């Protein structure tokens, strides 16, 4: 099964957005382990700017970031193969240790919807 591990950091914490050599070394070790285990699908960080597109009824509105209305925002993600949620959660517990200097953060673990799960809803 595929799982997305999204790390969330405080939007206004500069330390959450400035990689340092220690973080890069820990992240390199973690990613290397995932590659060696055949679990890594992809991994990336994201910048703390961007936009949000919202729909309310028929109205569509986009807002530029940084995202003042959010306390925590996604700082990056790792997509992995794991046998189940427990194994993916264990990987997330290891992943969060890469960010030893970040004051407050979380890692959300979400199973990815697979195509076969959608087949009953497709027109045939």
Describe this structure in words.
The chain is of the alpha+beta class and 124 residues long. 26% of the residues lie in helices and 35% in strands. The protein has three helices and six strands. The protein has helices at 21-36, 85-96, 115-118; strands spanning 2-10, 40-45, 51-56, 59-64, 72-81, 105-111. It has a four-stranded antiparallel β-sheet with strand order 2-5-1-6, with helices on one face. The longest helix is centred in the N-terminal third of the chain and has 16 residues, at 21-36. The chain starts with a strand and ends in a 6-residue tail after the last helix.
What attributes does this structure have?
alpha+beta; single chain; 124 residues
Q: What oligomeric state is this?
A: single chain
Query: What is the gyration radius calculated from CA atoms?
Result: 17 Å
By DSSP (H or I, 4+ residues per run), the number of helices equals 3
Please state roughly what percent of the residues sit in beta strands, choosing from under 5%, 5-15%, 15-25%, 25-35%, 35-45% or over 45%: 35-45%
Helical residue percent band:
25-40%
Overall 3D shape: flat
Helix-and-strand structural type: alpha+beta
Distance between the termini: 25 Å
Mean pLDDT: 91
Low-confidence stretches: none
* Main sheet makeup: 4 strands, antiparallel
Strand order of the largest sheet: 2-5-1-6
Kindly state the number of beta strands: 6
Q: What is the helix/strand order?
A: EHEEEEHEH
């Amino acid at each position: 099964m595929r799982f997305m591990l999204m790390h969330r950091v405080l939007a206004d914490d500069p330390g959450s957005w400035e990689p340092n050599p220690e973080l890069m070394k820990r992240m390199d070790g973690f990613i290397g382990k995932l590659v060696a285990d055949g679990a890594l699908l992809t991994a990336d960080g994201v910048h703390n700017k961007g936009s949000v597109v919202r729909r309310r009824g028929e109205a569509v509105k986009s807002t530029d970031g940084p995202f003042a209305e959010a306390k925590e925002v996604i700082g990056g993600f790792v997509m992995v193969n794991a046998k189940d949620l427990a194994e993916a959660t264990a990987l997330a517990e290891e992943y969060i240790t890469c960010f030893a200097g970040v004051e407050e953060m979380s890692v959300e673990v979400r199973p990815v919807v697979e195509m076969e799960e959608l087949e009953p809803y497709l027109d045939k």
